[in-house]
Specification:
heterodimer, A: 343 residues, mainly alpha, two-stranded antiparallel ribbon, 2 strands, 1% strand, globular, B: 507 residues, alpha/beta, 6-stranded mixed beta sheet, 17 helices, 33% helix
Chain lengths: 343, 507
């Protein structure tokens, strides 16, 4: 929508271009994503309508809304980290495994002795530690992100199984369990939703308002140009995988709160859900463009679909087919809008 | 040769790309069994012409006659079917496939239409390699494991695996050492004895004299002379045909002599070298001075620039800024010391094509606009705006998407990046590539003004008049070595071409 205007002023005279630039608020960076985000909001609205019609009593209930948001929170936090990585032209396949490892490490009997802080600290540190390994391998070991994080996926899952021996580690720390109780609220909002909201806001600011975000976009858009412009591309890559690990650590803590336990099967296929949500949100898989708002909307769309299908007692098989169709449709729309803008 | 009709006649071929008229009326006539040489400066249209002949580009107008029949070369396959094979300068082989698989790629001998008969391909490949005098190459070797010279032989085998009547060779000797060049010439001799024609592109006049029959000279997309005898046409005449362009470049005036002379050098390069790319280079650059590096593609120009900038790690020597040595192989050290680079491939190496002008300009200066990592975007945008305004970039809108800008304005955005950063040394690699004629003069003026304001500029260009017109001092490069250094006013295009092609000045 903004493209024709800029294309037309290619050779526009000075004065005209100047006033156009000042008035063209839709081109202001940061608001650039409104159009695509709006279309995703539209999809969400349609889904809500579908849910309201097919299961009127249950779907629109306050408790159900709360459930949807809570379910979206864990994968949502992972997706924010993933969005940064994809924007930089990378990929992190190990997010699900990192969530699993962090959740079981943080719920061992030894860790639980340190209470709430011990669990939170361990979950975050394990996430960051895994992210550090990913980052070092990719940035300084010059490994392809796909391979490095695939290796992390395998090892972290294996280590998680090793720690638990396949059993569920039940959490006995009261303060942690309280946070996940049905009637737990902070400022009138379920705590996990609040964490998700906070991560989203911080992520948005980080991507759109800081040098870190700008460098992420630059590395993803053209790593060679970024290097020749004097950006430390390797260090930036390291930080990005650290960030993804950090998000996974936070998500692992949230999952512990939600389920009251730690399991080595936690976070199964999170990598696919997070990548899919980021892509349908409008983040380019090839890097150079990322949108936190889009990713969050993508997560909400997927979670809502799951919820509607569950309320209508439909099989998960059908659900997965619908998910796949949405991914294809979103990418086709994205392709078209890209082609429209490319001269 | 009079009674025989020519194998190939091209007449009035034109081809335009956005902003550039690459071919502007080319005539070419090739007889069966001759070695026809194409000569011309960089950008004269040789590459475009052979791509038209290979079916990779469609001409806008003009006629192609092949063995007395009017033809259109609509695709590479169409050209191949007629018997035209092209061996490009950058070899187009697939490294992960074997020699035989490469040779028969796309026309594999098959059973039942789709089962590849590998043994037949290997046998045929072995025969072709033997014919080329390289029976030591095993058809089952992966191409990636071969040397550059051997890969060239494979490329040639691929050409010969078709029913071929005309082979186009684009600078085939560039990657070869003298012994291999002898073998190449022997192959060319055998081919022409069999009645195959060869179009041979080379900058080396001595080669053209040795194997060429006739020469066609291109200049600015036009054929200025066709069918000259290769052996007897004097060098002088050939060079004269290649030089003296019609387009008048408008260059800004140089400041009075001695303006920069009294100052201490800001950039000193001592014995900088990279094996296989360029021999040790010494260079001094003073504030206010523009120094040009002239030479052919592959003479090491861009490599020198990128090594000074730290984007390539030198094998020896050092770079000093204001007398302080830089950490070798570190772009960040170079940028911090005050060096800026406008790279050769503007889109691939210089710009973030998805971003705005403002983001592209501020990318090297981000931390200046940030407090604790927090960007002051209004300040950033205003500073970027100021920088692009100083260079009269159009449109005067920092929010415009960079990809919508013309080549000249994109280049200005790259210059604005370094202007904003306030660097001392600017390295310009082909600053006017893809920039149309009108916008060039403006770019020249901008570069000269930056120098007048105290910047030291090192300029690389494959267009000799550009180097001579813009630079104060010129270093002429040939095959990785500086062969001559002189005041730009003491050189002319003719002399530079002599140096570049022959390695010495002809009397």
């Amino acid at each position: 929508m903004t493209q024709p205007a800029t294309a037309a002023q290619k050779q526009a005279p000075t004065s005209a271009a100047k006033s156009a630039g000042d008035q063209e608020s839709s081109r202001r960076p940061g608001l650039r994503w409104d159009v695509r985000s709006l279309s995703l909001l539209g999809v969400l609205a349609v889904l809500v309508a579908v849910g309201g019609i097919t299961a009127p009593d249950q779907f629109l209930a306050w408790s159900n809304l709360q459930l949807v948001l809570t379910q979206a929170s864990v994968i949502g936090v992972v997706t924010v980290g993933m969005t940064f990585v994809i924007t930089s032209g990378g990929i992190d396949l190990s997010v699900g495994a990192m969530v699993a490892l962090a959740s079981v490490w943080a719920t061992t009997v030894a860790t639980q002795e340190f209470g709430f802080a011990g669990i939170l600290f361990t979950a975050v540190i394990v996430g960051v530690g895994c992210g550090l390994v990913n980052g070092l391998l990719i940035a300084y070991g010059r490994m392809v992100p796909f391979i490095a994080t695939l290796a992390m996926l395998a090892s972290a899952r294996g280590l998680a199984l090793q720690i638990t021996d396949g059993s569920t580690q039940v959490v006995t720390v009261g303060s942690v369990l309280d946070l996940g109780a049905r009637d737990a609220y902070i400022l009138g909002i379920p705590p996990l939703v609040l964490i998700f909201a906070a991560v989203t806001v911080i992520g948005w600011l980080l991507l759109n308002r800081t040098t870190f975000g700008r460098r992420t976009v630059a590395v993803g858009g053209n790593a060679e140009a970024a290097r020749l412009a004097g950006i430390d591309v390797r260090r930036q890559r390291l930080y990005l995988y650290l960030l993804s690990g950090l998000c996974c650590g936070i998500a692992a803590f949230m999952l512990i709160v939600l389920s009251g336990s730690g399991q080595n099967t936690n976070g199964n296929l999170y990598e696919l859900d997070a990548i899919a949500a980021a892509i349908i949100g409008g983040t380019l898989l090839s890097g150079g463009r990322g949108t936190i708002i889009g990713s969050v909307l993508g997560v909400l769309v997927f979670t809502t679909i799951t919820n509607i299908f569950a309320l209508n007692n439909l099989e998960t098989a059908v659900q997965q087919i619908a998910k796949g169709a949405i991914i294809v449709a979103a990418v086709l729309v994205q392709r078209r809008s890209m082609r429209g803008g490319d001269a | 040769m009079a009674p025989q009709p020519p194998l190939l006649t091209m007449s009035g071929i034109t081809k335009s790309f956005p902003g550039v008229r690459a071919l502007d009326g080319v005539d070419l006539e090739v007889q069966a069994g001759e070695v026809h040489c194409l000569l011309g400066q960089n950008g004269a249209g040789k590459s475009t012409l052979i791509k038209v002949l290979a079916g990779a580009h469609q001409p806008d107008s003009g006629e192609i006659t092949w063995r007395d029949k009017h033809v259109t070369l609509g695709s590479p396959i169409a050209a191949m079917r007629l018997g035209i094979a092209t061996i490009y300068q950058e070899l187009d082989l697939i490294e992960g496939l074997s020699v035989a698989e490469n040779v028969f790629l796309g026309h594999e001998p098959t059973s039942a239409g789709f089962v590849v008969r590998g043994s037949a391909a290997r046998t045929a490949t072995a025969e072709l390699l033997k014919r080329l005098g390289h029976s030591e190459i095993d058809p089952t070797t992966l191409v990636g494991d071969l040397s550059a010279a051997q890969q060239q032989i494979v490329s040639m085998a691929r050409a010969l695996s078709h029913e071929v009547r005309l082979i186009v060779m684009d600078e085939p000797s560039a990657a070869l050492d003298p012994e291999e060049v002898d073998n190449l010439f022997r192959i060319v001799g055998d081919l022409t004895a069999d009645g195959v024609s060869v179009i041979y592109i080379s900058h080396r006049l001595e080669e053209i004299r040795r194997i060429g029959d006739r020469v066609t000279v291109l200049k600015e997309g036009r054929s200025v002379a066709g069918g000259l005898p290769a052996e007897t046409t004097p060098t002088d005449e050939v060079v004269a045909l290649m030089t003296g362009r019609n387009v008048e470049y408008v260059f800004p005036e140089r400041p009075k002599a001695g303006f920069a002379a009294g100052r201490d050098p800001v950039l000193t390069v001592e014995g900088l070298t990279r094996r296989g790319e360029f021999a040790p280079v010494d260079l001094e650059l003073r504030p206010g001075e523009i120094v040009g590096l002239a030479g052919l593609v592959g003479s090491g120009r861009s490599e020198i620039l990128e090594t000074i900038y730290g984007a390539r790690k030198p094998d020896g020597g050092r770079v000093l800024i204001d007398g302080a040595p830089l950490r070798p192989g570190s772009v960040r050290a170079a940028v911090r010391a005050g060096i800026g680079l406008a790279p050769e491939e503007r889109k691939a190496q210089g710009l973030l094509m998805l971003e705005s002008v403002s983001s592209n300009v501020s990318i090297s200066t981000l931390s200046r606009f940030a407090r604790a990592g927090w960007l002051d975007r209004r300040n950033e945008r205003a500073a970027a705006h100021q920088a692009v305004r100083e260079l009269s970039l159009r449109p005067d809108n920092p929010d415009a998407a960079i990809r919508t800008l013309s080549g000249g304005n994109q280049q200005k955005a790259v210059l604005a990046r370094w202007l904003l950063r306030g660097c001392k040394v600017l390295l310009l690699d082909e600053p006017t590539r893809g920039v149309d004629i009108g916008a060039r003069a403006e770019l020249y003026a901008v570069i000269r003004r930056l120098a007048d304001e105290g910047l030291a500029v090192l300029l690389v260009s494959s267009e000799v008049p550009e180097v001579l017109g813009l630079a104060d001092r010129v270093l002429v490069l040939r095959e990785g070595s500086v062969v001559h250094t002189a005041d730009a006013r003491e050189l002319d295009e003719h002399r530079v071409l002599d140096l570049v092609m022959e390695g010495s000045l002809t009397p």
